[in-house]
Write a structure and sequence with these properties.
This is Nitrogenase. It is built from 17 helices and 14 strands. With about 450 residues, the chain is of the alpha/beta class.
Length: about 450
């Protein structure tokens, strides 16, 4: 068997954190997409709307991916398409195509949905399609259906709100203004419901407040009850635009309590929550002690095994790396493409762990920098996240995407347990990371 003997050139694909720049440690250019498919896309997130029906309008080649997403998720009965053809561009009937197509779909569904998420694409912006006219006509023709505008528009990825941010905003755009209940709170913007054992949840519920998340809404009527909340809580950075829009439109105040792995920051966030809800502040010393015990236990098992973290695991990979390094874990790599709001952790790690390696995930050279030999340099890693598992070639990995509902001290304790289990029990990474929208069954 032939074996590569020279070292793969990693320039532009990796950098010591001490030498990295903020907020973009890597150049922007031609991009590679790793076959770790567990993160959610706009199809999965849209399906969180209970009883909603998705309609995608775009060219057939673009439809292929979203059709497969719905099929893999088992939600084809809540998904329809309108194909844009060349004659629609030449004849200038794009608006009528959408109006007639939506009407045809609604007439053939066994039950008319209370809401439709209508996704338009790049071609509609290129051709100057009058989308305001389209939505006005649809709302006039079908007053019993709530329509919202969604977008599958990759040309918008790096200007203004990203498609992900837009999707999270539009997911709550159908909420209708109602009198606000001072004892009602929402957590918004996440793909997974926050675990009920999280301090964030227990403080709210034990304080006598009604807590809602879209994942727990069984029907469209329950979804509409989210409009009665006087406060929205956000810990996903991509959902801040959604909270701002709801404040402008419905008058709902909002708190941004970012995910963190720093004890002081967690306490500050939970204290802010207590103050906002007019509740007594809590003593979290026992929870901090439980975190320390869980991490110590995991460290005893994992030892000096190299650890790699990637950004798909959680919203704050550098904060996580910093906590694990403080506890003596051998964190060697973090896979990310930008740093975002983690500037403080980035600058701290530049001093505390200058040799920590940052690896891109979309740099084209990463096409070759994966697997145990070329990606892991012959070392066996404990991977935290699917992309870290793919690039290091490790079957010992924590299979969580986008926080998985973990938050606060409870989240740290559970993550420590997941790390211990991942070290003890290898998984079939090749099979698992190919599951599109991991955990998406929760929204069916």
């Amino acid at each position: 068997m032939l074996k590569r003997i020279e070292k793969m050139d990693e320039s532009c694909a990796s950098v010591r954190i001490a030498d990295a720049s903020y907020p973009a440690p890597f150049r922007s250019g031609l991009e590679y997409s790793a076959p770790a498919r567990g993160t959610w896309n706009i199809v999965h997130t849209g399906m969180l709307l209970p009883e909603g029906h998705e309609i995608f309008v775009c060219a057939a080649s673009c439809l292929r991916g979203v059709v497969l997403t719905a099929a893999e998720q088992g939600t084809s009965d809540r998904f329809s398409t309108i194909a844009v053809r060349e004659n629609n561009l030449l004849d200038g009937d794009m608006e009528q195509l959408i109006i007639d197509g939506v009407g045809d779909i609604l007439s053939k569904l066994p039950k008319r949905p209370p809401a439709v998420l209508l996704y338009t694409s790049c071609i509609h912006h290129f051709t100057g399609c009058d989308l305001k006219l389209v939505y006005r006509r649809l709302r006039e023709k079908y007053p019993d259906v709530d329509f919202t505008d969604c977008y599958m528009n990759p040309i918008m990825r790096k200007s203004g709100l990203t498609p992900d941010q837009l999707m999270r905003r539009q997911l709550y755009s159908l909420l209708k203004k109602q009198p606000l209940d001072e004892h009602s709170v929402n957590i918004i913007g996440n793909d997974f419901a926050t675990l009920p054992t999280s301090e964030l949840v227990t403080i709210i519920q034990d304080g006598g407040y009604t807590l809602r998340e879209i994942q727990h809404c069984k029907d469209y009527q329950q979804y509409q009850q989210m409009a009665t909340a006087s406060l929205n809580i956000v810990y996903n950075p991509a959902a801040k635009a959604s909270a701002s829009a709801l404040e402008r439109r419905l008058g709902q105040k909002w708190l941004y309590l970012p995910l963190s792995y720093d004890y002081d920051e967690i306490v500050d966030g939970l204290n802010t929550l207590c103050d906002t809800l007019h509740l007594s502040r809590k003593d979290f010393s026992d929870r901090i002690a439980a975190c320390e015990a869980a991490l110590d236990k995991a460290k005893e098992v994992i030892g000096d095994t190299p650890v790699a973290i990637d950004y798909t695991l959680c919203y704050r990979p550098l904060s996580l790396a910093r906590m694990l390094l403080r506890k003596g874990f051998n964190v060697k790599r973090v896979y990310l493409d930008s740093i975002g709001e983690e500037k403080a952790d980035f600058e701290a790690l530049q001093k505390e762990a200058p040799d920590l390696m940052l690896y891109a995930t979309v740099e084209v050279k990463m096409r070759f920098l994966h697997g145990t030999e070329t990606g892991g340099h012959g070392e066996h890693f404990l991977a935290l996240g699917q992309k870290a598992a793919y690039f290091t070639g490790s079957d010992n990995f924590v299979n969580i995407v986008e926080c998985g509902g973990l938050y606060g001290f409870d989240g740290i304790i559970r993550l420590a347990g997941e790390m211990e289990d991942a070290y003890r029990y290898p998984k079939d990474a090749r099979r698992l990371i190919q599951i599109k929208g991991f955990g998406g069954g929760c929204c069916l």
